[in-house]
From TrEMBL:
Gene Ontology MF term list: argininosuccinate synthase activity; ATP binding
Documented EC number(s): 6.3.4.5
Protein name: Argininosuccinate synthase
Enzyme class at the top of the EC tree: ligase
Chain ranges of the Arginosuccinate synthase C-terminal domain: 177-395
Highest taxon of source: Bacteria
Pathway note: Amino-acid biosynthesis; L-arginine biosynthesis; L-arginine from L-ornithine and carbamoyl phosphate: step 2/3
Record's GO cellular component terms: cytoplasm
Subunit structure comment from the entry: Homotetramer.
Claim: ATP-binding is one of the keywords in the record: yes
Residues at which L-citrulline binds: Y85, S90, N121, R125, S178, S187, E264, Y276
Alphabetized InterPro entries for the sequence: Arginosuc_syn_C, Arginosuc_syn_N, Arginosuc_synth, Arginosuc_synth_CS, Arginosuc_synth_type_1_subfam, AS_cat/multimer_dom_body, Rossmann-like_a/b/a_fold
Protein's organism: Bremerella volcania
Gene Ontology process terms (BP): argininosuccinate metabolic process; L-arginine biosynthetic process; urea cycle
Length: 404
């Protein structure tokens, strides 16, 4: 029999897909990639996969790798898709594909299957990553197969199939929205959130953050140390990448930090509405930005800022494993060599306020910047500087006079 590896979550869709793949003649190896999904009994999920007929089922822990090798380089770019979204789901998908392909190679599987639909971005991220890592891989996306869609046109049919096959699922035909979660964030979409007149922040039962209104009435202070662009300490305690994110999720979450509601442009062309919460990463973006402001040269920062929308778009669309991204990641790693320092932030009801920042590599010179008398900046130098800068404008003004 042919065999495949299935990126298995234990939810309704992948549980049905596991059974359907067996009906189609595949031996199925279920792989649950642990990315910090909260409130899930992982051993129960494995047992469920085995009870449903999986030839093998395993957990692969990708939490540290995702934070260290995927999220933190994106953080160094200050990359946000369409200036808002911190890419928490987008970052995870190439890693899931990588880890599933590693298992496929180990067990000798012929194909890689996932539960992403033909309408969303995740199908792009899963497949583009898989094909880049293994150009010969066969990707099975049941939601893009007409036979599967005819069998399961809606949630009612999915649930009926599970009942028929005695597959236990916690699902109902009425659900106000769907969610996807990992240690970086939780995303919420679909269902009632497709109605743009619905207040998403009021509808969603957030899992990582309290509302700013319910946050404490007193600011909480947090100090973050960065070394070469990598967050390494929280409140004086040295941490792994995962520990940094986890600690800041707790601190930011209880202070209502990191909620957004946006309408975004999907790679497949449609607009969609998403509600997100990412307390830890939101704090890290602010913290690193403040260290960068001290330590990075003006022209370097401006070049980075010109390129960061390209990075955000490629991560969002799923182009993680390609030559352009390799070059961009090498660039930002080099750019961050002097980005070392410490920043103290105050968190208050969803807001992040800078209390202090410092760095041994700071390019800020108070003697030059001071507005008081004296200092080491000679204002007479500005006369010649501006005459040279203004030369093209003066020439153009003589040739083409402007009305004023």
């Amino acid at each position: 029999m042919p065999s495949c590896v299935l990126a298995y979550s234990g939810g309704l869709d992948t549980s049905v897909i596991l059974g359907w793949l067996q009906d189609e003649g595949y031996d199925v190896h279920a792989v649950y990639v642990d990315l910090g999904q909260p409130c899930e009994d992982r051993q129960a999920i494995l047992q469920k996969a085995k009870d449903c007929g999986a030839v093998s089922a395993r957990i692969v822990d990708g939490r540290e790798e995702m934070c260290r090798d995927f999220a933190f380089p994106v953080l160094q770019w200050q990359a946000k898709y369409e200036s808002i979204y911190l890419l928490g789901t987008s970052i995870a998908r190439p890693l899931i594909s990588k880890l599933c392909l590693q298992v496929a190679k180990e067990v000798g599987a012929d194909a890689y299957a996932h539960g992403a639909t033909g309408k969303g971005n995740d199908q792009c991220r899963f497949q583009l990553a898989a094909e880049a890592l293994d150009p010969t891989v066969k990707v099975i996306a049941p939601w893009r197969i007409e036979k599967f869609r005819k069998a399961f046109p809606g949630r009612t049919e999915l649930i009926a199939y599970c009942n028929e096959k005695n597959i236990p699922v916690k699902a109902s035909t009425a659900k106000p929205y769907s969610s996807d979660e990992n240690c970086l964030h939780i995303s919420y979409e679909a269902g009632e959130l497709e109605d743009l007149t619905v207040n998403g922040v009021e509808l969603v039962d957030f899992g990582m953050t309290v509302s700013p209104q319910q946050a404490p009435d007193k600011p909480e202070t947090v100090t973050i140390k960065v070394e070469k662009g990598v967050p390494t300490h929280v409140n004086g305690e040295k941490c792994t990448a995962l520990e940094v994110v986890t600690k800041l999720n707790e601190i930011g979450g209880r202070n209502g930090v990191g909620r957004i509601d946006m309408v975004e442009n999907r790679f497949v062309g449609m607009k969609s509405r998403g509600v997100y919460e990412a307390p830890g990463m939101t704090i890290l973006y602010d913290a690193l930005l403040n260290v960068e402001q001290l330590t990075l040269d003006r022209d370097l920062i401006h070049l980075r800022d010109q390129l960061k929308p390209i990075v955000a778009e490629d991560v969002y669309n799923g182009f993680w494993y390609n030559a352009k991204m390799d070059a961009l990641l090498a660039f930002i790693a080099n750019a961050m060599q002097k980005c070392t320092g410490e920043v103290t932030l105050q968190l208050y009801k969803g807001n992040i306020i800078v209390a202090s920042r410092s760095s041994e590599f700071s390019l800020y010179d108070e003697g030059i910047a001071t507005m008081e008398g004296g200092g080491s900046y000679n204002q007479d130098d500005a006369e010649g500087f501006l005459r040279i800068q203004g030369l093209p404008s003066r020439v153009q003004g003589r040739v083409t006079p402007r009305a004023y």
